[in-house]
Amino acid sequence: MAKTRVNVATVDPVWTRICDEARDALAEEPLLGGMLHYNLLHHATMERALAYRFSLKLASGEMSEQILREIADEAYAADPELGRRARADIVAVYDRDPACHRFLQPILYFKGYQAIQAYRVGHWLWTQGRRDMAFFIQMRVSEAFGIDIHPAARIGQGIMIDHAHAIVIGETAVVGDNVSMLHSVTLGGTGKEDGDRHPKIGDGVLIGAGAKVLGNIHIGENSRIAAGSVVLHDVPCCKTVAGVPARVVGDAGCDQPSVKMDQILDPDCCAGE
């Protein structure tokens, strides 16, 4: 028997799983049928669904859903990396957030995920020189989700922002891949200085709730920042910092803090520091 040829370009396990979960959710809760169809099942690709969700959540009296949908569709068509990063972000949330039990939850219900995807469209606009439209997207994301990310900031993939209330990420901030942060995190400046003035967060970093990382400093890969800390100086790779101002209190405790999500400081590792 001849083998069936498969077009690898059409294989999308993340989107397939989301649609399967949507059908299961529809069977369990028929009253959500309209929302599940409009947001997910009506769309042929994840990119089209993300563009629809983007337009629905950010539309206002100043900008219609139709215009925003066209902008997002254009962005996803022009830059396939946006879709790839959106999928990596969903997998990250599912893997790291114990409250996430299905792939469809972030795209439908989690404002941290939705805000990051909207930022990505705004960042694409910024790179195209469409600065005013990018600022408009930033404003609407802040108003709709309570998250303020400058469109010029550079953010990697596999990002998980848990709860995601009161997140601030400044203009020259850089966030690496596979970073996790909790609510009320600020990646900000230290005053009125211009130029490169915001933190650079390495891959695999875990940033606890309420932490403030200020200034043009580097946070080394696979490090941990304890909740409530104020970080004003560089942090070495694979270390844990805590306090106001923050200081190194021990090792990170594992190879990938952002994946393990362990925020408990080990008294043994902090002894003698």
Please give a structural write-up:
The protein is an alpha/beta fold and 273 residues long. The protein is 42% helix and 14% strand. It has ten helices and 15 strands. The chain has helices spanning 13-28, 33-41, 46-58, 65-78, 80-96, 104-109, 111-127, 131-145, 257-260, 267-270, and strands spanning 147-149, 154-155, 160-161, 167-169, 174-175, 180-181, 186-188, 200-201, 206-207, 212-214, 218-219, 224-225, 230-231, 239-242, 247-251. Strands 3-6-9-12-14-15 form a six-stranded mixed beta sheet. It has a five-stranded parallel beta sheet with strand order 1-4-7-10-13. A hairpin with a 4-residue loop joins strand 14 (239-242) and strand 15 (247-251). Helix 3 (46-58) packs antiparallel against helix 4 (65-78). The model is unreliable at 3-9 and 269-273 (pLDDT under 50).
